Amino acid sequence: MRITCPLCGARDRREFHYMGDAVYLDRPDPVAPAVAWDDYLHLRDNPAGETRDLWFHEAGCGAWLVVTRNTVSHDVLSVALADGIRGGAG
Amino acid sequence: MRYSGFRLFSEGMTGNRGWRPVWRDPEPKPEYDVIIIGGGGHGLATAYYLAREHGLRNVAVLEKGYLGGGNVGRNTTIVRANYFLPGNSEFYSHSLKLWEGLAQELNFNVMHSQRGLINLFHSDGQRDAFARRGNAMINQGDDAILLDREGVREILPYLDFDNARFPIHGGLYHPRGGTARHDAVAWGYARGADARGVDLVQNCEVTGIDISNGRVTGVQTTRGAIRARKVGIVVAGRSGQVAAMAGMRLPIESHILQAFVTEGLKPVIDHVVSFGMGHFYISQSDKGGLVFGGDLDFHASYAQRGNLPMAEHVMEAGMALMPMIGKARVLRSWGGIMDMTPDGSPIIDRTAIEGLHVNCGWCYGGFKAVPGSGFSFAHLLATGRHHAPAARFRLDRFARGDLIDEEGTGSQHNLH
Ligand SMILES: Cc1cc2nc3c(=O)[nH]c(=O)nc-3n(C[C@H](O)[C@H](O)[C@H](O)COP(=O)(O)OP(=O)(O)OC[C@H]3O[C@@H](n4cnc5c(N)ncnc54)[C@H](O)[C@@H]3O)c2cc1C
Ligand SMILES: [Zn+2]
After folding, report:
1. What is the model's pLDDT at position A87?
2. Parallel, antiparallel, or unpaired for β B280-284 and B272-275?
3. Which entry of A23, B93, B247, B361 is 20 to 30 Å from B136 by CA?
4. B414 with A20: Cβ contact below 8 A
5. 3-state secondary structure of B331
6. Which DSSP category does A29 fall into?
């Protein structure tokens, strides 16, 4: 698997650290009710197919990226800088 | 048909003409008392104990492929009870006790081999953590022995003890740990369930879950609709997708775990050896193949095949730990879809939909759990009450913040 970092270009998957679903960008308010935090931290759509997740270009530029990819074929469909993006539905 | 030495001998003398298929291939009936979705280890064990412990025989196991074609037939077969946290400790202890009588009980050789498991440590801090874990195991009534470096050298002389980064300081030895034959466990439970009247329906994919007024009424399948007032979802890596049919979201992300096997060799590795710091573990199968694996590929996936970076990493860790392994040739590698929870511990519970139950989240440790999980899930389905050893595996523990984080790695699905 190769991921094309918008800043560094196409790089080997080994340069990147995977964090999880892009819902991690939608951090609830600290005083949000427990259900909101449960949803954010634990519950997942977990699709077999297209998904958006959060990767860190650890051995490159150090940017956080939102990667749209297919969990069945491992195709990487698009990559964007996470800066300024909201997670979940967006 | 009972298996015995005598039976084997007499069949051998008469041209093996008396063997018959050991389970039926029934058409699904229009209605059952209980439907189990998923014919893996956990689903088959659940059906077996429903019939055997609770006398429920009007039960179906619906499997989309063939019995035992999922993770139960893809895993590296390690069976152990070396857990630390309350919740896990009593559950895996119970499961190991069931393993110890399983071949006799099922009249099927599951090849449970208690060859001993050694978890290596490489620092004083790790030694303390393992001593504490060992004490927890002993308090649970299981067995643990803390070995120093020379103690490990005595039983595993072939390791590289002076690795520059992870010199071996000792190991936690769990003599009752070991391996079993993965397929045999699925087949043994399948045969036992079928003999008690359970319908094992293969090539039957569940495509929908029927719910009316907050209560489950049955399932839609590729072989038609089937009614039942109790349904158990036991589909491992596919848990999220099947739960979605009931409008549920689970605390699960599916990931791939790879495993590798070499050509058959003469006996060389007599135990299960786990090198946690290198993300590597190994045992030798009864056929002689070295069976080994490592960690997840780390990103969500349903591909059921691994990526090369993790394959390379596992080989490197193996070479670092036991350089002799470099002479063995790898025959095959494969991957399975793991149902990862955010605390690394499983779920055996009812859901908000009456009659609908889930058994999932086994991450990469669900093979050893097969007997205990089947036993406890059958208890819940039949009696409506949680079985004591599995009573903490609740679905709502995440919302309550009452996580069972055995490895202490935090609430991220891929870190367990
Ligand atoms: C490489 C690897 C190594 C492992 N090593 C170990 C180990 O050493 N020790 C250990 O304890 N555990 C290990 N595990 C984990 C263990 O294999 C799993 O946790 C366990 O097998 C999962 O439960 P199961 O047997 O019921 O799953 P499965 O065998 O996967 O059963 C689930 C079944 O559900 C069926 N299904 C899915 N969707 C549907 C549907 N819609 N309708 C009908 N049927 C459906 C599937 O076809 C499948 O047969 C390992 C796993 C892997 C992949
Ligand atoms: Zn970059």
Report:
1. 59
2. antiparallel
3. B361
4. yes
5. strand
6. P
Domain containing A54 — which CATH number? 3.30.2270.10
Instruction: Test B342 with A74 for CB contact under 8 angstroms.
Output: no
Q: Do A43 and B254 touch (CB under 8 A)?
A: no
How many C-beta atoms surround the C-beta of residue A53 within 10 A?
21
Total domain count for chain A? Answer: 1
Atom of ligand 1 nearest to the CA of B66: 49
For the Cβ of B32 lying below 6 angstroms from any atom of ligand 1, the answer is no
pLDDT reported for residue B242: 98
Q: Is B151 helix (H, G, I), strand (E, B) or coil?
A: helix
Task: Quote the tokens at residue A48.
Answer: 């077999």
Please state the pTM of the whole predicted model: 0.97
Does residue A78 belong to any structural domain of this protein?
yes
CB-side exposure of B336: number of CA atoms within 13 Å?
26
CA–CA gap between residue B262 and residue A35 (Å, rounded): 48
* B111 touches B181 (CB < 8 A): yes
Asked if A40 is an interface residue toward chain B (Cβ–Cβ < 8 A), one would say no
Gap between the Cα atoms of B367 and B336, Å rounded: 12
Name the residue range of residue A72's domain: 1-27+46-90
* Residues A69, A27 contacting (CB under 8 angstroms): no
| Beta strand pairing call for B206-212 and B215-221 | antiparallel
Tokens for A89?
A: 């539905």
C-beta neighbour count of B207 within 10 angstroms: 13
| Contact yes or no for A82/A57 (Cβ under 8 A) | no
With respect to residue A4, please indicate whether it lies within any of the assigned structural domains.
yes
What are residue B119's phi and psi, to 5 degrees?
-100, 120
DSSP state of B76: -
Reported ipTM: 0.94
The predicted pLDDT at position B16 comes to 95
Q: Cα(B278)–Cα(B281) distance, rounded to whole angstroms? A: 9
The confidence score (pLDDT) of residue A6 equals 97
Residues of chain B with pLDDT under 50: none
B312 → chain A, closest CA residue: A14
